[in-house]
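FIELD: query
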Amino acid sequence: MNSMFDGSVVVCEAPVQGEPYLLTPGPLTTARSTREAMLRDWGSWDGDFRAMTAQLRASLLDIAGDTAGDYDCVPLQGSGSYCVEAMLGSLIPRDGHALVLANGAYGKRIATTLGYLGRAATVLDKGDYLPPRGEEVERLLAADPRITHVVAVHCETSSGILNPLEEIAAATAKHGRKLLIDSMSAFGAVPLDVRQIPCEAFVSSANKCIEGVPGFGFVIARKDALRDAKGRSHSLALDVHDQWEVMNRTGQWRFTPPTHTVAAFIEALRLHKLEGGQPGRLARYANNRDVLVAGMQGLGFEPLLNAGWRSPIIVTFFAPAHPSFEFERFYQSMKRQGFIIYPGKLTAVDSFRIGCIGQVDEHVMRRVVGACAHALREMGVAHAAPPAAALDERKRLAQ
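FIELD: result
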């Protein structure tokens, strides 16, 4: 796919012949120039590659709003979950206690990870429909002085819910605790400015809203937290302090870096800036979401979430109640038409998800709606309304 920029306007062209759009929360459809940046080989110890590493670290700190120089960026090889585990294992002391704010699969994965790490945890599980609120965090922190850290997911992509980080951060700071954020699928599009949302650290990944390719993630953390993390990690490979210390001393990654992914990311950062940075990217993604939801509702589909909590990253829809609807047939029809969508990740109801991020725009989203209509006709589904019981369950659980 290629992208053309005119001020803050991005025009997304069709992908290469035969390639589908990836309507997922990452990996996602990337710009052609981002992919082409991987056609050159790089020496991992060479000065040119060290300069690329320094550039990506500085650019990410700029997007995070670190004007005071209190934070640093530590890229790490591996998927986003590697970086989440690295953050938890390096920044939460072994005798620490985390309050995990969960409302989907990724919050629950954080709790599972803490169990592997032997860190104590309390879980506030809000289910699939609602966010954790600041007043709830305040009550839990006031009631339990053992809690040292609060861990929150910025955008819970199993449902598409956007959690209210501002009030969570304010409640955490009020009680003198430390906030860790999984902003895997949000950073770069949804605002996360460390001047406005005080936090100890957050993590994200190359292949999300910056629109790079998979291969590494990054921890952005307070420098004093990174210093305090020395000797704390359970893992050599996931030791954020050690990676930070070596990068600052040598400019190099400790172990073989994903050189081609870094090169692609540098190009993705260039395109991100050309689009208007975080505000420009948010505007396109939010418009994608709104066009998608309006079109899908016209077919009878119903979003899982109320509009107030619906993120611009990915939208979850209830599966239709019609007896002829089968998700696998629906998925294969969408794929034949050039769109890869996501199955649902909820336990209470049947659902599926359509991502709004990557190199797609409102014109693509209208084509997605048309493809959904075609898939319904192929299956003989006259209307995509969800089961009444699913709507009743949403109403009950969302109260």
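FIELD: remark
The two ends are 43 Å apart (CA to CA).
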